[in-house]
Amino acid sequence: MTVRLSRAERREQTRQELVTAAEACFVTRGFHATSVDQVAERAGYTKGAVYSNFASKEDLFFAVYERRVEQTLTEVVPSLRQAGAEHAFDWLATGTIERRDRDDGWLAVFFEFWAHALRHPELRERFAAIHARFLEPLAEAVRALAEDRGLALPADVTAGQVVLAWNAMEVGLGLERLTQPQAMDGVMARRLGWLLLNAVLGAPEALAGSNGPPQDRGIR
């Protein structure tokens, strides 16, 4: 039996199909090279249908980004919390590099849109808000890691600042890898990430030159 959708359900279905089409176009072509017409065609709708759901191409990209973050928060973060802070940082540091065939297109367009947002002040606040939602569980992990080790963050440093620095380094490594694929692997990304975390937390391992957590669990 065919299930009849309500008007609101049909509208939401159309919106999600447009977001899916937009993500595929952005990942394949890039943000600037993708047109609203191309998104509409891929989704099987008219250009008018796009603009009845999204104010602009930027608004469409934000919807893609928001959905990706929401999927990470609901599908990935719970299992990482259960596994523990050390595993979470291992997974995040190595994940993008080890899933390169699937994630390179997204990483490239993410950098492209980030640069675009910097040149358009009206986009920065929304971009920063979505980005902060993604980083908040990492700040929680920093606090948990310090507690597990019986350490405290320096008085003038917050968990949020540690995460910003850690993420900036990992994002930068990802950018370098896009242009030099052989220059960066998961082992190095993980090693550098732990050097930063250990140094900020004041762990003895940082002074001894350790490249991982006290009990090295390996790369998963």
Protein model, in words:
This protein has helices at residues 7-29, 36-43, 47-53, 57-83, 85-98, 100-118, 121-148, 159-179, 186-201, 204-208. The chain has 2 domains: 1-54, Homeodomain-like (Arc Repressor Mutant, subunit A), CATH 1.10.10.60; 57-208, Tetracycline Repressor, domain 2 (Orthogonal Bundle), CATH 1.10.357. The longest helix is centred in the middle third of the chain and has 28 residues, at 121-148. With 220 residues, it is mainly α. The N and C termini lie far apart (45 Å). The model is unreliable at 204-211 and 214-220 (pLDDT under 50). The chain has 10 helices and no strands.
Biggest beta sheet summary: none
What letter string, H or E per element, gives the SSE order?
HHHHHHHHHH
The domain tally reads 2
Strands, total number: 0
The averaged pLDDT comes out at 86
